[in-house]
Structure formats: structure tokens, C-alpha cells
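Hi F.,

I've been meaning to write this up properly since the lab meeting, where we talked about keeping a consistent format for the predictions we share between groups. The idea is simple: the sequence comes first, exactly as it goes in, then the C-alpha cells exactly as they come out, then a line or two of notes. No screenshots and no reformatting. I'm using this chain as the first example so we have something concrete to point to.
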Amino acid sequence: MAPDLASKRVLLLGAETGVGRAIAEALVAGGARLALVATGADAETAFAVQRLGRRLNAPAQAIDGGNEMAVRVMVRQVSKQLGGIDAAVFCADRSAAFQAPLALAVRYAARELARTHGTFVAVDVEPWEQPEGELRLGVTYVSVPLQKMPLEQAVARALHAVAGAADNR
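Output, unedited:
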């Protein structure tokens, strides 16, 4: 049974990845309000996430995910655009290119999620461990390790984590 996502406001980072696209499509199909962000700012990535955004009728942008100011501004803009964030989903791999974006996403998305008692979902190749210095009260952290499950199961786990996110408007 598909979870009820109709009232959820979701920030999806890593929309340029295969798992990111699969989760984005499933979130929209479930009725979630979604903002797509690619964590790479090269032209090919930016165009790909823009096309996905048009197809899903969701705002989309590409940023330099390693640039602290860019991540901070993007999270605030998305939160204002969606009227808050119930869940942030970060889709990545373990490459060095995703380490800084993941750390910054945790820091700034968690600030917004603490206001709604939301959920931060890290969909990664390996189980993800929350950095202790970035943990915030009121935020639920969920790790969905792709290494241990097929893509369809990972998408389903991410959707259930989003569905379980508090909706405190």
C-alpha cells in the first residue's frame, strides 16, 4: 500500500541521480508538493533537473552543493516557496563529490525541519551515520542504504519515511 503523501512538503536534493529521479516521480505520484535540487551546477545537470521539474510540475534548480551560502539560501527559498518543509530527502552516493553537499544539507535543512519536527532522509550507497554536531532536536533522521536493497525497496522506504514526517503547519 502506498503511503499518503498528499500534505507533505518535500525538498529533494540529488534530483540528478537515478534514485533521486525515481523518488521524485513516486513523491509526485503520491501527491507530495516537491522542490527538486541538483547538487551539481554544471550545465548538463542543470538542464536535466529543469526537464524533470517541468515534467513533474515541480520547481527545480541546480546549485553548487559544496557552496555553503548557496545551500543555505536554497533551503530558505524552498521553505518559503513550499510554506515550510516536512521532509528533506538527500539522494547521493559515497563519492567525495557528495560529502560536502550532504554535510551542508544536513546542517541547513535540519534547521528548517526542526520547525516542523520533520524528517531528514539520506538515501545513500551505505548506511549513513548522522554527524553528532549537526543533530537537532525534533528532527527524525532516517538512513536508506541502497547497498542493502533494490531500488524499488529503497524508494518505498524513503516514501514511508516522508509519510511519517510530522505535518505541523
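Notes:
The helical segments are 18-29, 43-56, 68-82, 96-116, 151-163.
The two ends are 26 Å apart (CA to CA).

If this format works for you, I'll send the rest the same way.

G.
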